[in-house]
Amino acid sequence: MKFIFGPVASRRFGTSLGIDLSPGKKQCNFDCLYCELAPSATVDAYNEAYPPDEIIFELASALKEHPNTEVITLTANGEPTLYPYLDELIEKIDAIKEKKQTLILTNSATLSDPKTYRSLLHLDQVKLSLDAVSPEIFKKIDRPHEGIDLGKLVQSVVSFSKEYQGRLFIEVLFVKALNDTPEEIQAINDVLEQIECERIDLGTIDRPPAYPIEGLSYEELFKISHRFNPALPIHIASRKDVTSQPSCYSDEEIINTLDKRPLTPEDLALLFDADSLKRLYQLVETHEISLKRISNLDFYVPTKNLKRKRHKNS
Ligand code: SF4
What we know:
Layout: E1 4-10, E2 14-20, H1 52-65, E3 71-75, H2 86-96, E4 101-106, H3 114-121, E5 125-129, H4 135-142, H5 150-163, E6 167-174, H6 182-192, E7 199-204, H7 218-225, E8 234-236, H8 251-260, H9 265-271, H10 274-285, E9 289-294, E10 297-302
Helix pairs in contact: 1-2
The structure holds iron/sulfur cluster.
The site of iron/sulfur cluster (SF4) has 9 residues, from loops.
């Protein structure tokens, strides 16, 4: 198949069939330092785009072959919202998707274009990236196409979050010595406080990047997660090749840690040593800690917080 890949079992989004809207080459309005694709000149429009019917033909056959697909993900070798027939494609997917959800993974840059903004309102799920809110850091990390205005981008993400009726996810990807300073984290936090979303994924580089840069360790991401307002629905996106030094936590430390930031079983396996994990399971047995499903993921939380509202959509 030319456009369809997967199904991919995504922990964050479910079983997904991907659609690559730019299978021939990278076409993107960013040239991010961390991109897993090779560096390339930015564009503000696709100069190679395939008709929606070709994509739908493949998708229909893939859906027949993989009836357990939960999510149809629009993505690209580059930025999927630059695909010129996005509206028509979404309409045609809606006609055949039955109960499956549509999702797009976008760098957010075209959201200030009213046409893209309206197209994305029709999707069931949207994931918007927001790596920086200071112009100089944004330029260094994401290396945007000329004319992309960060102020408008941020404003459109905030407005979209308030109008959109589907499931909205935000992703912040951290790069060492660029957007991990206390000042930038505080500035990102201030913007995130204005955004209404289901989950905020904090991540770092987990594939060989386009340029020689460094990601953060899991512990560094964990520390960063504590700088954000605890009311925000933050999730540390775990990585395949993560390395960490598990530590010892007392009962009280376990409860305090989960009080500040609910964590998934995978997070805890990285952070807690074997004795601390045993203590955690005992706290679950005595009902001081509970497992709560939030936005596709299981999180351990203090039982007393089960009714705490972390966000209006959660
Ligand atoms: S937005 Fe995505 S595809 Fe484009 S350069 Fe950045 S990481 Fe690569």
